[in-house]
Please model this.
Amino acid sequence: MERLVIYEADKLDCSGLYALASDPKKFVVGERLQSLTPQSADETATLAVIFTGSQITKSVLVRMPRLKLIVTLSVGFNHIDLKECAARGITVCNVPTYGERTVAEYAMALMLALMRRLPEATERLKAGNASHADLIGMDVAGKTLLVIGTGRIGRNVIAYAKVLGMTVVAVDPYPNEAAAHKLGFTYVGLHDGLRQADIVSLHAPLTPETHHIINKQTIAIMKPGARIINTARGELINTTALLHALHTRRLGGVALDVIEGEQYLGGSVEAKVLASGRVEHQVIREIAEHEALLKLPNVIITNHNAYNTAEAHTRMIEGGITAIQDFLAGKPSNTVQPSK
Model:
């Protein structure tokens, strides 16, 4: 009998996954509201469905000796130790297409909100001030957008940007020249793109090569007053360098749906430190940087919300169901492999 355990179940409508257990003699489904950790690991599970809050490490996997399949209801999979899974014969699948338009729409919403200073205008009006004398924004038409990562989401961002009259350049280690021709953008080197860009939008996976791709050195290359949008992974940006660039007005603003240490966002500093279970310099620094960023008027931060639409939730669950069914049929789909 297969035992499927759904982790982080409070974040999703899991009714479709429960439908897999129509024959209780063959399939048992359980759920955990919390993420998958060594403490929440179900030792009887043969299949596990997770989200991005679950860090799948060796210490988790040793607690799940019967596990055969992990399905992450996300595009990214950097929260999973793929090499350890491969060594243990565990198949890992993702859901690569559920949010290609959803996340791209959110990136554009962040861009427009940042350029037109919507959060500042809203907060001012809530405080009883209807003046807009010093809330001058900027058009996006005519601006140059650098898209770092031209996968499905990045290409949709490019398509939307072109509709808005933007010039688009892109960086990707694996250029898609057919897409460049169709959508009307140009591939450039990273430094060249940063020099040209009025706005940078990040859509790259987190890898050793992309970790802190936005840092003190690359920010120094950018135009004074340029903006950055990040809906990919927080670790693509060195937050310390970002904060310094904002304070010195080297950058004109940022809109972040992801940030380093995003698990510590929200609540009091004391509560977040206690919740982390680690009183370490790195944790304290990340929390302090969050607090500093949130106080700046030219910063928008949301808490990993870009995927969060009703339609995307449906596609995520459907993708998870398909992955499980294909695996049990002996034809696993959307598998991800460790890098060599």
